[in-house]
Amino acid sequence: MRQSVTVRAPAKVNLQLAVGPLRPDGYHDLATVFHAVGLYDDVIAEPADDISVTLAEPDPEVPLDGGNLAVRAANALAEATGMAEGVRLRLVKRIPVAAGLAGGSADAAATLVACDALWGTALSRDELAEIAATLGSDVPFALLGGTAIGTGRGTLLSPVLARGEFHWVLAVAAEGLSTPTVYRECDRLREAAGAEVPDPAVDDALMAALRSGDAKALGAALSNDLQEAAVGLRPALAQTLGAAAELGALGAIVSGSGPTVAFLVRSPEAAIDVAVGLTAMGLCRDAKRAGGPVPGAKVLRT
Ligand SMILES: C[C@](O)(CO)[C@H](O)COP(=O)(O)OP(=O)(O)OC[C@H]1O[C@@H](n2ccc(N)nc2=O)[C@H](O)[C@@H]1O
Ligand SMILES: Nc1ncnc2c1ncn2[C@@H]1O[C@H](COP(=O)(O)OP(=O)(O)OP(=O)(O)O)[C@@H](O)[C@H]1O
């Protein structure tokens, strides 16, 4: 048996997030364009008698019991394969928690890959993706990485060929937002407006921008149906989004359920300008630079 496996777990932004009506099962049908970016957690897995998790840096927001998404992933893989092995998981968290960047989902996907290697279960990517979908709507994409269209509740994926690399600045807020709360607020706003909610569809202009690698067109095409709800719950986000033009960004969008705001910029140099500007204006707790698209959960070392 292997001694230790380290897997890299990247964050994501949603370049588009179109949200359909509330379904009877409590989820919403989506048409989303996921995009994995170069901001990573590391999941280090070592053989053990039972399944446990520790953090490289203590963080009271991250549970250390069976509620941790990495532990849930290890349990789900053990159950699906009949494995009696344990694992000691250590998380090096760099992705901010409850930030709309799918950090917990990234850890879950990376744990599936790590335990699959450690336990020698050798499941196919499709088999891992099936287990991933039981853990959360963002987890199958966290396995796949790159850029992909997500439909259904976000678990039906089709990869997109994006030309070139894009540069991002992620403006991290001081406090997270709960994903179900943001979806509920979106439903409430829609009900109050009384308009019919159309079936979600992927935007052609966004797809064309990705295919041609046109960052300016991509900046103009970014969209998120959860943005109004996230701003309603966290009004300060309006100011952060509003700073995009002044800072020379090509576009800005709330990432997923927020509250992180993702700024698309022209170059790594422009990313430094935007990060410095956001910090100087006091608009975020932290401004993280990242490029993308990048591969999903991937073994770094064994
Ligand atoms: C906002 C996004 O990050 C965009 O990619 C995802 O849709 C959320 O994915 P996630 O955090 O993996 O979400 P899950 O753990 O599957 O679901 C948490 C809650 O979010 C809401 N939810 C999630 C996905 C979806 N398609 N519709 C929903 O309404 C539901 O209230 C659900 O109970
Ligand atoms: N390994 C983990 N890392 C971070 N949070 C975790 C983890 N396991 C469980 N959680 C819990 O999950 C909640 C959501 O955290 P996460 O960082 O995944 O949010 P998010 O990025 O907003 O998710 P998403 O974008 O997928 O909706 C946190 O409040 C935390 O208590």
UniProtKB/TrEMBL annotation:
Binding site for ATP: P96, V97, A98, A99, G100, L101, A102, G103, G104, S105, A106
An annotated Gene Ontology molecular function: kinase activity
GHMP kinase C-terminal domain residues: 206-278
Pathway(s) this gene product operates in, as recorded in its UniProt entry: Isoprenoid biosynthesis; isopentenyl diphosphate biosynthesis via DXP pathway; isopentenyl diphosphate from 1-deoxy-D-xylulose 5-phosphate: step 3/6
HAMAP family on file: IspE
Entry annotated with the keyword Kinase: yes
UniProt xrefs under Gene3D superfamilies: 3.30.230.10, GHMP kinase, C-terminal domain (3.30.70.890)
Pfam families in UniProt: GHMP_kinases_C, GHMP_kinases_N
UniProt protein name: 4-diphosphocytidyl-2-C-methyl-D-erythritol kinase
Family assignment from sequence similarity: Belongs to the GHMP kinase family. IspE subfamily.
Known EC number: 2.7.1.148
Keyword Transferase among record annotations: yes
Catalytic reaction list: 4-CDP-2-C-methyl-D-erythritol + ATP = 4-CDP-2-C-methyl-D-erythritol 2-phosphate + ADP + H(+)
Key words of the record: ATP-binding, Isoprene biosynthesis, Kinase, Nucleotide-binding, Transferase
List of catalytic residues: K12, D138
The protein's role, per its UniProt record: Catalyzes the phosphorylation of the position 2 hydroxy group of 4-diphosphocytidyl-2C-methyl-D-erythritol.
Organism: Sporichthya brevicatena
InterPro entries, sorted: GHMP_kinase_C_dom, GHMP_kinase_C_sf, GHMP_kinase_N_dom, IspE, Ribosomal_Su5_D2-typ_SF, Ribsml_uS5_D2-typ_fold_subgr
Residues covered by the GHMP kinase N-terminal domain: 68-146
